[in-house]
Structures are given as structure tokens and as C-alpha cells.
Amino acid sequence: MILALDYGSKRIGLATGEEELKIAFPRSVLTNTSTKEAAQSIAAFCLDHQITKIVIGLPLNNPNYPDNPIMNDLKKFQQELLQTLPQLEIIEVDERYTSYQADTLIQDISIKSKKQKTNHLGRDAYAAQAILQHYFDQT
Questions:
Q1: Which of 35, 89, 90, 109 gives the lowest tally of CB atoms within 10 Å of its CB?
Q2: How far is it, in rounded angstroms, from Cα 48 to Cα 38?
Q3: Does residue 65 surpass a pLDDT of 60?
């Protein structure tokens, strides 16, 4: 199983999917209180769910992001993950527009749901789903 992460300074969205099926599902959102705690939480999730690969969304090929503080935090987070889970492959994919895709998906789900409680996972989990689906579509 593959885990996708939509990393943010306050929250980290999680999505999973099977590489053979190439379908991504939103899972949960973690509160990001510190790099080390976040990496430990992700490591526990990986062990509990038999994760074999992690896909992390990055705003690639965007000249506005080279010195972005979130990129520095994300790189530290990746290093912490690699130290905690050295056996897992970490793949970076372009995450541009995934928040927009997540908003569109949430809106679509809300319109179809009479109770409008289906989007309880939050935008970050759906953004992680979009990241993973993009990865599946490219492989």
C-alpha cells in the first residue's frame, strides 16, 4: 500500500491506495505540532497499514518557491521520515493545484450528500488523495 502526504505547517493530509488498482482514497488529517512528532505519527501509520512507499507533494517547477519556509520544513520532515523509516521509498510529486482539486471534490461530495457530512476528512486529506491519484496516473 502507498501513502500520500499533503504536508502543511499546521496539518498533514493522508491518503492511501494500492499500486495495482491505481485508486487513491483520503484517510485522515494529522495535526502538525513538530517535525519529529509528525514523522513518528506517520511512521506508526506506515507500520500499522503496511505502507511500502510514501508519495509527498511538492510545489515543483515553481520559481516562487525556492526559498519558501514550508519547503525547508518539508525537507526537514523528509529527513526525519528517512531516519525513522529507512526502508521506505519516498517519492516527490508535483502538488500544484491539488488544493483546488480537493476543494472541487469536497464541493461535489457536499452537493451529492443530503447531510453534507461526507467531507469530514477535510481539505488536506482530499489534497493528499489528489497527490496520490496524480502519481498513479503518471505511473
A1: 89
A2: 15
A3: no
Residue extents of the structural domains in the chain: 2-138
- Choose the CATH number for 2-138 among 3.40.50.1000, 3.90.1200.10, 3.30.420.140, 3.30.300.30: 3.30.420.140
DSSP 43-90: HHHHHHTT--EEEEEE-TT-TT-TT-HHHHHHHHHHHHHHHH-TTSEE
Question: CA-to-CA distance for 103 and 92, rounded, in angstroms?
Answer: 22
Mean pLDDT, residues 99-122: 56
Mean pLDDT of 6-24: 94
